[in-house]
Amino acid sequence: MAESEAAPLGQSVIPIVNKLQDILAQISNPLDISLPQVAVIGSQSSGKSSVLEALVGRDFLPRGSDICTRRPLVLQLLQIKKKADGSVEEWGEFLHAPGKRFYDFSEIRREIQAETDREAGGNKGVSDKQIRLKIFSPNVLDITLVDLPGITKVPVGDQPSDIEARIRTMIISYIKLPTCIILAVTPANSDLVNSDALQIAGNADPDGKRTIGVITKLDIMDRGTDARNLLLGKVIPLRLGYIGVVNRSQEDILLNRSVKEALVAEEKFFQSRPAYNGLTDRCGVAQLAKKLNQILVQHIKAVLPAVKFRISSELVAVAKEHASYGEITESKAGQGALLLNILSNYCEAFSSMVEGKNEEMSTSELSGGARIHYIFQSIFVKSLEEVDPCEDLTDDDIRTAIQNATGPRSALFVPEVPFEVLVRRQIARLLDPSLQCARFIYNELLKISHHCMVSELLHFPVMRKRVEEAVGNFLREGLEPSENMIGHIIEMEVQCIFLFT
């Protein structure tokens, strides 16, 4: 894609994607929609921060010898026009501080540090909760970058012992998405084959179709060596290629040399090194920004139809759900009428399910009134039939009872008293199956109350909970007197024994 084509297209589609990302970031239950972005990964002190500051052209990131990036920083670079008088105005905006513009970039650094400490603590802790920052400047190209914590080996401060595994998991959660472009940063003074960034990128992007390699710190390579073969992809090939950059040294930072001065020094470095002749399109931060912008635009063009289809599908589903809620009135009278209508529909649904008139009748299992009938006619009757009237009643028991009833005299006929005693003991055994039947009916009525929730009631979770509580309490209040009545009936049968001769 030509630069003239990429610039206007990038200025139109990248801000749209950025706005979608901001919207999704503020949703408590974000949709499963992955949007195109560039994830910056690398080991600790690989030069990630210097690369990002060079792309912006300003100092704005926290610095230090230990881990600095402790939360994912979503950095949206947005190109604006210069003022009519030719002056340049640049500022930053945080999503967590809407409406506030930060014109002082050192204040942006302090805000990043403060927001990091608020979430991850002040002692090197790490969090996966994003910080979202927009930079508005005429000196940037439209790019969306995610600066991820550097891969570290040894935990420090409040970091857990498995800090390396946690950071790798966080990085993979971003770069595994097919819509994510991976910016793998590796210092030139380390072995590219052992690069942590390229290794983890290779796991998520084995074909190297989404990975751009960035070789930093070219100016501190051993004398007599250069990174030409690395930039040409002869060591580890990547389809999107490599870009070499020269970072600001720690001395430059201590002496407050600006990023713009460092970019001028970088240009002079490449011009003074014959090894990099013919590689102008692979050297320098300016080339990196241009390449990232072009690749991001191409990537957005490729994935935008699928993203549009997914968003459209979600909109249709949400619109359908919204329509199902119906119109809600704000007046007390209207709310009362709605409440009465919902409760009436619920009562009607409960009654229909018990009487077998439910339109959504199950064909796979018994339910409602049919299930209650089955409990009475099959389960309860069967449990009664399983009660053996002579169980635990031996001939010795009968003989002993007769002897006890005759007293000191012998009897010609069997007395009635031992018969009544033995029969009462056997009748009492009917109590447990009867109480069990009552509990089965109670549980079935509870199940019916859960299954017959009308659609309107499902839209009001608090009201649904209150209805379920009221019905549950009502059924529980009915179970106790039912069990008492069953006990009284059995007791009546025990107390009144009719003898037929």
UniProtKB/TrEMBL annotation:
Keyword presence, Nucleotide-binding: yes
Transmembrane segments: none
One GO term (biological process): peroxisome fission
InterPro entries: Dynamin, Dynamin_GTPase, Dynamin_GTPase_CS, Dynamin_N, Dynamin_stalk, G_DYNAMIN_dom, P-loop_NTPase
GO MF entries: GTP binding; GTPase activity; microtubule binding
UniProt keywords, alphabetically: GTP-binding, Nucleotide-binding
Listed PROSITE patterns: G_DYNAMIN_1 (PS00410), G_DYNAMIN_2 (PS51718)
Family: Belongs to the TRAFAC class dynamin-like GTPase superfamily. Dynamin/Fzo/YdjA family.
Protein's recorded name: Dynamin-type G domain-containing protein
The organism of origin for this protein: Kalanchoe fedtschenkoi
